[in-house]
Design a protein that fits this description.
The chain has 326 residues and is of the alpha/beta class. Helices cover 40% and strands 22% of the residues. Helix 6 packs parallel to helix 7, helix 7 packs antiparallel against helix 8 and helix 7 runs parallel beside helix 9. The two termini are 33 Å apart.
Length: 326
């Protein structure tokens, strides 16, 4: 089974210099690619000079995560794609448990390893942790991370289990599944596109797994800081896109509740004088309204919807019931 590790890069020479050596060292059985999203720094020249064993794919434009990978993976020949952030350190034998799971279970289409925090390696990392789930209103959470409550890694998630979504920070997917799902939705640009992809896989009866026997360390926020208003905008907008396209049930009630909850989040930002984030939510909602006809058309065309959520409201469960683990 041929694995290709594909690292999407945009002006990330420093990250490649720091983290690419660990990928090369511990991925002997895989082909390694750097897919460059029209960088304006010296990333491409740096990789060519210092890592000649790495294949470079040069995308014509910076289409973000979604289009960047859609464009790049057309040039990759492998059974399994590993979509790896440029700010990840991998570990010895990290690919072996992943390969074993794919070989043993043919319906497994997508896999995420254990993702720990590079800056505090005994704790899970926010973006993915021990595998992702979602509530009725498309708020994502993870084993090992619910909102800002992040667990210490004590081996509690050293298992293999079904999850709802795998983090785009380190996502393995069969080439056949990626092509059958028509890749990422390029209108997302970045953020939530992996949840949309996994949701579409779920609705076509493909399996998404977490394999805790494989570990990587993620810096997080290296390309777009967590406090950046653009991240707020993309997360709120793209989550509305995703639930409209993929959710089962009375859509009007789900969306209305979600819009109200978003409004409460916006008021919280306003009370904290984070006016740029409040504005980002307003902008996200207007973009959602503008795109609603297209999203409803996609909803009609996509496969039959299935029950998808692990808890009705993670907001209620976390803030009212004080449940911090799943």
């Amino acid at each position: 089974m041929k694995i290709a590790v594909v690292i999407l890069n945009w002006n990330g020479q420093q990250l490649l210099e720091q983290f690419l050596p660990s990928v090369i060292q511990h991925s002997e059985s895989a082909d390694i690619y750097v897919a460059d999203n029209a960088s304006t720094d010296d990333s491409v020249a740096f990789v060519s000079q210092h890592f000649p064993q790495v294949t470079i794919i040069q995308n014509a434009t910076n289409g973000g995560y979604a289009k960047g990978y859609n464009d790049a993976l057309k040039h990759v020949d492998a059974d399994i794609f590993c979509l790896l952030n440029s700010d990840i350190e991998v570990t010895k034998q990290w690919l072996t448990p992943i390969r074993n799971e794919f070989e043993a279970h043919k319906n497994t289409a997508i896999i995420q390893p254990k993702i720990l925090d590079y800056k505090n390696k005994s704790y899970f990392e926010y973006a993915g942790a021990g595998g992702g789930f979602i509530d009725k209103y498309a708020y994502p959470f993870c084993r090992g991370r619910v909102f800002d409550s992040i667990e210490k890694d004590q081996g509690q998630y050293n298992d293999i289990c079904s999850i709802f979504w795998a983090s785009g920070a380190c996502l393995f997917i069969r080439k056949s599944a990626f092509e059958a799902l028509n890749g990422f939705d390029e209108t997302y640009f970045a953020h939530f596109e992996e949840i949309d992809l996994c949701w579409r896989a779920f609705n076509t009866d493909l399996s998404v797994k977490y394999v805790g026997l494989s570990t990587v360390y993620h810096v997080g926020g290296a390309t777009l800081n967590a406090i950046h208003p653009k991240k707020t905008y993309l997360n709120f907008r793209n989550s509305l896109f995703t639930i409209t396209k993929n959710a089962k049930g009375p859509l009007f009630g789900i969306i209305l509740t979600r819009l109200i909850l978003d409004g409460i989040a916006g008021l919280k930002f306003l009370s904290q004088l984070k006016t740029s984030h409040f504005a980002a939510i307003i902008k996200a909602h207007f973009s959602f309204y503008k795109n609603l006809p297209r999203l409803l058309k996609q909803r009609r065309e996509l496969p039959q919807k299935k029950n998808y959520y692990k808890t009705t409201s993670i907001v209620w469960s976390y803030f009212i019931r004080k449940r911090y683990r799943y």
